[in-house]
Design a protein that fits this description.
It is found in: Cell membrane. This protein is mostly helical. The chain folds into 3 domains: 191 residues, MFS general substrate transporter like domains (Growth Hormone, Chain: A), CATH 1.20.1250.20; 54 residues; 225 residues, MFS general substrate transporter like domains (Growth Hormone, Chain: A, Up-down Bundle). The chain has 19 helices and no strands.
């Protein structure tokens, strides 16, 4: 018996959503393994080359809430296609033989694509059956994490074989494929949706987030220009406070602050923020340790490509956890899955702190981290979307991803600061003990995350779902 058009469309839609989410994450992460190659090719300092990663994270964090609001309206398909077109154009700039400033512009355009992950979740929730949609949303959340680790070894290999332009050429190829895939498969949003972007609010939020991520990424500001860094931190806090107040008073908020203040959503975002610090901290500690030359008294001196292979267990077990989590949801509430996943990541910290004398131990620690991150990422949407109307899916998850981006950036900064503090004067590399100290800091972060998730599980049973906003076409459901 032939499959119905609806079932055939659903079969095509799911891999398309997964592919787009994977591509935008992988393309944005291309800056990570190429920093040294960029510095050599463009004759710039390593600090300047670092901006090829930082600027993508900045543009992604700024674009995410705006795209989330646009994705809640009637022009979601056009928003997805236009954003992917921007990513393709930015990818072309990274490949063309242009000066370094154009490379940064291209990387900023590539980072905009990070805002599409939440829109993919909105499409899945609107156009797939409830159970299939929940499983797809969980996997989209996971691939948005492991996409970075997929791109890392491939970019490192291409950079070694053909130079930095060849590595960025991979980004152009897959971005064009994602645009074609989206054009052929993305359905229009349901009728009756409306969305207005508050431009002033978007500018204020962009300014505050940019300063936060800048201060998190540029740790040298804190060590060499403490007064200036503190002043910028105050400005960032003021901008975010002004934004929050204006959102509460606005009839067309960029982010539904009422939804964000819901105990379940607020608790989930706190867990995401603190957990993000810990998860990204361990990821950076392991990869940095693996690439440290043996002359430092520890480390393995791995090349960029081989160090990228250390991330393979992270990707594989992260995907496995993402597939298992929706099934576990039938028996275990999402907050308990968050708590359990945070404990797994904590075990990864313990393994790294106690045993890292050979590569096999690093592979094990990275695999444990991947399984914990995969489970955490897959369970997170279930906590938020259980109390979120369908029409607000993209907006609610966009805010969660901004929180995640800030947490990841702070995790990287915390790792850098702890290792810098453990580097003796006149030495290039930190002491081995500094890595243990950083691991203990991360373990504390995951302990806090576990407690926050357990608090979510004990929240008052009277805390119900958020009502569908006026003009929305979705309906509130008890599960995503």
């Amino acid at each position: 018996m032939a499959a119905s058009p609806e079932r055939s469309e659903a079969r095509l839609l799911v891999p398309s959503l997964m592919f787009v989410a994977l591509v935008v994450a992988a393309v944005a992460s291309l800056g990570t393994p190429l920093i040294t190659s960029v510095a050599t090719t463009f004759h710039v300092s390593l600090d300047s080359a670092q901006w090829t990663l930082t600027i993508a994270l900045l543009s992604g964090a700024v674009a995410t809430p705006v795209l989330g609001r646009l994705g809640a309206g009637p022009h979601r398909r056009a928003t997805i296609l236009a954003t992917l077109a921007v990513v393709v154009a930015g990818s072309a700039l990274t490949v063309l033989p242009l000066p370094f400033a154009w490379l940064l512009a291209g990387r900023a355009a590539q980072g905009v694509g990070l805002g599409l992950t939440a829109l993919m979740m909105g499409v899945a929730r609107d156009h797939l059956p409830e159970r299939r949609g929940a499983a797809t949303i969980a996997l989209i959340s996971v691939v948005s994490i492991i996409g970075a680790s997929v791109g890392y070894p491939l970019a490192g290999l291409l950079a070694q074989l053909g130079g930095v332009r060849a590595a960025y050429g991979l980004g152009l190829l897959v971005a064009a494929a994602a645009l074609l895939t989206a054009w052929r498969s993305m359905p229009a949003a349901p009728q009756g949706r409306s969305a207005h972007v508050n431009v002033a609010s978007a500018l204020v939020l962009s300014g505050g987030l940019s300063l936060v991520l800048l201060l998190a990424g540029e740790t040298s500001l804190w060590s060499h220009h403490l007064a200036a860094a503190a002043g910028l931190a105050v400005v960032a806090v003021l901008l975010l406070c002004v934004w929050a107040v204006s959102e509460l008073r606005s009839r067309t908020p960029l982010v539904d602050v009422r939804a964000v203040r819901h105990p379940a959503v607020a608790g989930a975002n706190i867990a995401m923020f603190v957990g993000g610090i810990g998860m990204y901290l361990l990821l950076t500690l392991i990869t940095r340790y693996a690439q440290t030359p043996r002359d430092a008294g520890y480390g393995f001196g791995l090349t960029t490509f081989v160090a990228g292979l250390v991330l393979v267990p992270f990707s594989v077990l992260g995907f496995v956890a993402g597939k298992l989590t929706p099934r576990a949801r039938a028996r275990i509430d999402a907050p308990f899955l968050l708590a359990g996943s945070a404990v797994v990541v904590g075990c990864g910290f313990v393994l790294f702190a106690a045993a890292r004398s050979n590569l096999a131990e690093l592979f094990v620690a990275m695999g444990v981290l991947g399984f914990g991150v995969g489970g955490f990422s897959a369970a997170m949407p279930g906590v938020i979307l259980a109390v979120t109307p369908k029409s607000e899916t993209s907006s609610a998850m966009s805010f969660n991803y901004v929180v995640r981006s800030v947490g990841y950036s702070l995790g990287s900064a915390v790792g850098g600061l702890v290792l810098a503090a453990g580097t003796d004067t006149g030495h290039l590399f930190p002491s081995d003990a500094a890595y243990t100290t950083a691991a203990l800091v991360g373990l504390a972060a995951m302990a806090i995350t576990t407690l926050a998730a357990l608090a979510l599980a004990r929240r008052s049973p009277g805390t119900g779902p958020i009502e569908e906003p006026a003009g929305g076409a979705g309906r509130t459901t008890s599960t995503p």
